[in-house]
Design goal:
With 358 residues, this protein is an alpha/beta fold. It has 13 helices and ten strands. It is globular and about 60 Å long.
């Protein structure tokens, strides 16, 4: 019995460069429909402060999440997120294994990212909630943070690189966030966001390496165990590493025999490179269908948490991701992003043949 986490939904979007949105705001922000207080930013805000550190993500002192962190997250977020189904797949016969899909695309914003975002927001102090939060994201973390910050009445700003899908940029605006479209890639967008956080006193919420983000994502693992018992393996797409860190922590605490398998695209194998290097290392990324996994450097906390619990890491080619997207549409009637199809792609590519017949 193999459980495959299918984290992201939405159409497969052609990425288009955006310098500004049609309303003419070069700062990339406008009033959200929900009436949150909007912030005017100046060019000075966008000047990068060199060597600014994220206090929650320190290379020399990584933080490992534990099972108690995840159970705490599960209790606090349960009224704000969906407990998504984990259903047997129509692809079981085709793949030759008992395959179950954890359908995280049924979250309101279409992604598991809501779990960590909500928990991180709930754990802020009252003063931090008053001042607000900021993050950098290509889309899914930005949407989850924007949506739940709006629901909780917390000011939120997201910096999205110019390659971010237009649909996701607009969704964040619709959820009431201050949206800044700036930076040629995620690394630049993150530097801008952290510089703004330093100047304005915002809390920077790393989308994959903040301890509360990892704990929130780990609630998926608790649900899989509740729904499936003790599966033979859980296959998890890997970008920055926060999802696999949380899920592995939850599952291994309850079911040590369950294998944890990570999957990356060969266009952005940053976790595999980190394992070879002995720690997170900058990995040049190429354009990929799995843009949600395109993180150039995996998280320090996520890496330290996940590696001791990881049983296997595989890298898949783009053509297998494309095929997995197609088969999910045909057989499951699910439209998922490339990142969400990565686990199935690994099965189609023959990387998990040891689970045939299980």
């Amino acid at each position: 019995m193999t459980s495959f986490t299918e984290p992201e939904n939405g159409e497969v979007i052609t990425v288009k460069k955006v310098d500004q949105i049609a309303n003419g705001h070069t700062n990339g922000h406008e009033n959200g429909i929900n009436g949150n207080q909007q912030v005017e930013f100046t060019e000075e805000d966008f000047e990068i402060i060199e060597d600014v550190e994220d206090p929650y993500c320190i290379a020399e002192n990584p933080v490992k999440v534990c099972f108690q962190d995840i159970t705490s997250a599960a209790f606090l977020i349960k009224n704000g997120i969906q407990n998504t189904p984990c259903q047997k797949s129509h692809l079981s016969e085709m793949t030759g294994m008992d395959l179950y899909l954890k359908k995280e695309f049924l979250q309101f914003t279409g992604s598991f990212k809501e779990r960590g975002a909500r928990y991180a927001l709930l754990m802020l102090s009252e003063e931090q909630k008053r001042i607000g939060v900021i993050s950098a994201s290509l889309g899914n973390h930005a949407q989850g943070l924007s949506y739940h910050a709006n629901r909780l009445g917390i000011p939120v700003t997201v910096v999205m690189p110019t390659a971010a899908p237009i649909m996701k940029i607009q969704k964040c605006r619709n959820y009431g966030a201050n949206v800044i479209v700036k930076g040629d890639n995620m690394s630049e967008a993150k530097k801008i966001a952290m510089s703004i956080a330093k100047r304005r006193g915002y809390v920077y919420v790393n989308g994959y390496d903040h301890p509360h983000i990892m704990a929130g994502q780990g609630t998926i693992g608790l649900e899989i165990i509740e729904q499936m018992g003790q599966p033979d393996a859980v296959v998890v797409p890997v970008g920055g590493g926060g999802l696999i860190a949380g899920v592995a922590t939850a599952i291994k605490a309850i079911s040590p025999r369950t294998k944890i398998i990570g999957v990356e695209s060969d266009k952005c194998p940053s976790f595999s490179r980190a394992m070879e290097h002995g720690g997170p290392i900058l990995t040049p990324n190429m354009a990929t269908l799995a843009d949600g996994l395109a993180v150039p450097t995996v998280g320090y906390n996520a890496f330290a948490t996940a590696v001791p619990l990881l049983d296997k890491m595989v890298v898949v080619r783009e053509e297998w991701i494309a095929l997995a997207i197609l088969r999910l549409v045909e057989q499951e009637k699910c439209v998922v992003e490339g990142a969400g199809a990565a686990g199935l792609a690994a099965i189609f590519a023959g990387h998990l043949n040891e689970y045939r017949g299980k």
